[in-house]
Amino acid sequence: MLVGFGTSDDAGVYRLRDDLAIVQTVDFFTPIVDDPFDFGRIAAANALSDIYAMGAVPISALNIAAFPVDTLDLRVLERILEGGAAIAQEAGVAIVGGHTIKDDEPKYGMAVTGTVDPRAIVTNAGARPGDILMLTKPLGTGILSTALKRESIDGAAMREAIDWMTRLNAAAARAMVQHGAHAATDVTGFGLLGHAYEMSRASHVRIEIDANRVPLMTGVLRLIDSGAVPGGTKDNAAHHATFTTFAQDVPTALRTALSDAQTSGGLLIALSPDRAESLGKDLEKAGAASARIGLVTPGRDLRVRI
Fold this sequence. Notes:
Blueprint: E1 12-17, E2 20-29, H1 36-53, E3 57-67, H2 74-91, E4 94-102, E5 107-116, E6 132-135, H3 141-149, H4 155-165, H5 170-178, E7 183-186, H6 191-203, E8 206-210, H7 220-225, H8 231-240, E9 244-246, H9 252-258, E10 267-271, H10 273-285, E11 291-297, E12 302-305
Parallel strand pairs: 3-4, 8-12, 9-12
Antiparallel strand pairs: 1-2, 2-5, 3-5, 6-10, 6-11, 7-10, 8-11
Helix pairs in contact: 1-2, 3-4
């Protein structure tokens, strides 16, 4: 085993031979959008993201599903699986089976296997002082999903989040490997600050984030001010406050956004400053965000400033 759970990395890595390792991960959750097809797409993209974050290529997946067969039409489950299959096909991933159980609430996701050269694994433990930090998707999926459930926004306003959540991190992963990224992680349920702290701790460095440079989805700060904050984000924010040093001029709503629990979020990438501009150009060509949100310095903590 080359990578386990000791550094809170995105996936496990097991070496088969000197030039080949398998990368494994699993993720599933309850619906965060109304449309079952979109839910399937989001859940599949989210599961695949852990493979991409390691600089690996996903090759196969197993469906994991739970479904209330007594209260919901099986056509709903069919559409969920069709959504997952659509994303798998886009990623070039073979769905080789799966398992479904009866449950009171729908749940869906995938167990994914990928491959990587053991000499080219990208983990969250390689960030170096002087590195630039880049983020490839805006934040706000948790806030917007909660606002949709509370009918504070309509489906049209949610479309931005759905488009980002169903966008694969494949091109961003290829670009970061090509440009020699030192470390990476995908931003998911632990929020940007949580995953950044895991990178800081695993790499034994300080991470400094410029809050104004972090891209947010439309209306996120306004919705936070109106109270559309999911429980997971509130829990994150409380926990993140125990290890994050905030500058006094970082507004409360922005602090909350940085802790927002993401689904199928972007990659947080650490790489040399001389490679950041060329990576940014390639990310933009691939339709990803290319925001420089901070830097790595000597130390062992997390700091957020304006």
